[in-house]
Amino acid sequence: MADIAFLLLIFLILVTGIDEKGNVKLPVFRYSQKVSSPKRIAIVIDKSGRIFVDGFAMDWSRFDSFLNSLSNKKDIIARLIADSSTDYSNVDRVLSFLRKKNILKIVLVTKEPVNGKKK
Amino acid sequence: MIHIDVGRNENKTEISGAMTDISFLLIIFFIVTAVFFADKGLFLILPKKGRKPVQLNPKDVVEVSIGRDALFLNGRKVVNMDYFRAVVKERLEINMNTVVVLNVLRGVKYQRVLSVIEEAKKGGASEFSIISLSRKSVPVKVERREH
Fold first, then answer.
1. Looking at CA atoms only, how far is residue B59 from chain A in angstroms?
2. What is d(CA B79, CA A2) in angstroms, rounded to the nearest whole number?
3. Which CATH number does the domain A19-108 belong to among 3.30.420.270, 3.40.50.1100, 3.40.50.2000, 3.60.140.10?
4. Half-sphere exposure of B69 (CA within 13 A, CB side)
5. For B92-138, how does the pLDDT look when each residue is reduced to its tens digit (9 = 90+)?
6. Are A18 and B35 within 8 A, CB to CB?
């Protein structure tokens, strides 16, 4: 019984992930689609435009180096978790960095409106 | 004299039971707090680096400038989103290859851009080109995924 319990526990630890959104307030978007992929990177942009990858804050040069390290990987989907009130120029800059490094599939993570109405 | 130790296994049973309880508690904790690897959002495909800008026929384009508090459609200020949506729908009925070009002006918030994309999608648009003030046009295809 204990063996089964530990196996289940290990399974759950492996297949689930910690919520990376943190304090970011997601934008509302009605037409969101479900996207899942094992090859993903999560990029968080907070309200002031700071970038976080895997919980670590990065400046643009460090972010560039990080993306360079992914250059040999194919079919990566980048999850962009940006605060709804951040300037769009911050999002656009990240998109252009991703495009330069040939990471072309992006998910702009959003949340659906509650009861059909926007918050 | 034979010495029989009767109670030796009792402790092992207690420890085993406690470990099972702890493991189940941890399982419940992970089930409740964890997030599975499935996101919801707007799926984008960016054009490849080095790809030449696409020349669009003005007839295939609905150009909208997104300001902080206003929306400008073909140079004119749009009063409400319903009108913008109706224009997109009308243009798509005439030409289903219509591209919605979004000029994002300075200081515009991310939510605002998504709200405009949402209205365009309500009107049936699926191809977008997003131009931020200091950057070249990046045609962005919004992909529909069937599940």
1. 26
2. 65
3. 3.30.420.270
4. 0
5. 999 888 999 999 998 999 999 999 999 999 999 988 888 886 545 45
6. yes
